[in-house]
């Protein structure tokens, strides 16, 4: 049996004094003041054992990590039509890229770039009675924790500065791939990105992907096949134009957010969350990538 506590403590020690930690995302003004020294790791095994170190219990903005959770909520409700509105190919482009490459006939390349996530947001806005509340309650139910909330300042900060996302949503609307008003869909999207969690909550939220779709939800669980597909999308698209690098260095399906969180998982085994707000030039947590590389190298636990 691997001494997981020792492994994550060693990784934390190896990296905690690193001087070059990347830059916090300041294009969302409300995220610009986060202390770049924060660094936490939380590991959850499928049998419920947990191991944690550093700033694992501080909350941060999950940002694009939410795109996997909206997809997981939408897919069982809209299983056939969803893949007609968004493709499943890696993009090789940054998350906010607008080129027609990403929007072939108005169909975004995948659900984890912003344009694709905005289509998924539109699907949820159409399907849910109270979209923001219903999605927040879904996340709370998945984690079994009713303290999870939106950071309304972050959502507002993004609304005021989200010109790229307005451009993407308008383009999707022009192509006929948004059913609802641009403002309504983006209000939902900015709120989903502004959900706050700590590393422990994030590890719990992603257990369903390590567990063939099964989690503590009473309804709307993913099927094993849907969980497999979402894992494939995380592996190929979860880190934008650095997805190849993440597979190469770490070898796990996972998802990053510009809040500095990364969550990754090994089906049948574990989920692991790392938070360090400094980002590399692709918008992924710099220390987070290094920590996960060390984790899969030290434990030899990866999909490869
Ligand atoms: N809310 C951010 C945006 O839309 C999410 C980006 C990210 O985390 N990569 O720009």
UniProtKB/TrEMBL annotation:
SUPFAM superfamilies: beta-lactamase/transpeptidase-like (SSF56601). Gene3D superfamilies: DD-peptidase/beta-lactamase superfamily (3.40.710.10). It catalyses: L-glutamine + H2O = L-glutamate + NH4(+). It comes from the Bacteria. Its EC number is 3.5.1.2. Pfam families: Glutaminase (PF04960). Substrate binds at residues 64, 114, 158, 165, 189, 240, 258. One of its GO terms (molecular function) is glutaminase activity. GO terms for biological process: glutamate biosynthetic process; L-glutamine catabolic process. Keywords: Acetylation, Hydrolase. Belongs to the glutaminase family. Homotetramer. This is Glutaminase. The gene is glsA.
């Amino acid at each position: 049996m691997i001494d997981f506590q020792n492994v994550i403590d060693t990784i934390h020690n190896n990296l905690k004094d690193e001087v070059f930690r990347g830059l916090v995302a300041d294009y969302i003004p409300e995220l610009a003041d986060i202390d770049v020294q924060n660094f936490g790791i939380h590991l959850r095994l499928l049998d419920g054992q947990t191991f944690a170190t550093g700033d694992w219990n501080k909350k941060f903005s999950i940002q694009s990590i939410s795109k996997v959770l909206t997809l997981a909520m939408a897919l069982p409700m809209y299983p056939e039509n969803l893949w007609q509105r968004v493709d499943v190919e890696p993009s090789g482009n940054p998350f906010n890229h607008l080129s027609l490459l990403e929007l072939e006939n108005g169909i975004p390349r995948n659900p984890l770039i912003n344009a694709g996530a905005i289509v998924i947001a539109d699907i949820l806005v159409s399907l849910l009675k109270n979209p923001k509340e219903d999605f927040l309650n879904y996340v709370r139910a998945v984690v079994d924790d009713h303290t999870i909330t939106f950071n309304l300042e972050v959502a507002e900060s993004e609304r005021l500065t989200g010109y790229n996302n307005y451009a993407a949503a308008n383009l999707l609307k022009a192509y006929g791939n948004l059913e609802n008003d641009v403002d309504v869909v983006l209000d939902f999207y900015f709120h989903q990105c502004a959900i706050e969690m700590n590393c422990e909550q994030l590890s719990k939220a992603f257990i369903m992907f390590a567990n063939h779709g099964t989690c503590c939800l009473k309804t709307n669980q993913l099927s094993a096949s849907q969980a497999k597909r979402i894992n494939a999308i995380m592996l190929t698209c979860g880190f934008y134009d650095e997805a190849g690098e993440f597979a190469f260095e770490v070898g796990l399906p996972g998802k990053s957010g510009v809040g500095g969180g990364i969550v990754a998982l090994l089906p049948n085994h574990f989920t692991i969350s790392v938070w360090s707000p400094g980002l590399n030039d692709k918008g992924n947590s710099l220390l987070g990538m290094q920590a996960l590389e060390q984790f899969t190298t030290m434990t030899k636990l990866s999909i490869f």
